[in-house]
Amino acid sequence: MAYARWIFKGSLVDEYGIALPPVVQAAYGSGYGQDLYGITLFANGHVMQMLEGDNVALQAAARNLRDMSKLFGMEPLLHEPIEAPATKTVSVGLSRYVDLISEHLPPNVQVFNLCEEEICQRTEPGAARDFLLGFI
To answer: What is the DSSP string of the chain?
Structure first.
């Protein structure tokens, strides 16, 4: 099976993150942590997602995200082959409104305060981590 890591960035229709849970759902579908893993970052209306998984699941996620009316200006930043997903969780880093947003995410999605330390704990050194750290 061929695996890859993709990073996208875009903006939500609202700066408070009310539209974020449906965007996370669109990326991972109903199989949170089964076919795709990754990290979603949200701050001031902007989103960055790092998705890891098999190429078929990644293509489906990208299609779902492009079809989202709550997400616009979606731009691919990184697409690299990997041997296997380095991240074995689905997590969301939030700069504010943590309680408001997290209550609308599935219970198996890990929520963390958006900061450099948390991103470094959840990712391996390299281009992907650099992109995520650049989002802060």
So the answer is: --EEEEEEEEEESSSSSTTHHHHHHHHHTT-BTTTEEEEEEEETTEEEEEEEEEHHHHHHHHHHHHT-TTEEEEEEEEEEEESS-S--SEEEEESS-HHHHHTTS-TTSEEEE--HHHHHHHS-SSHHHHHHHHH-
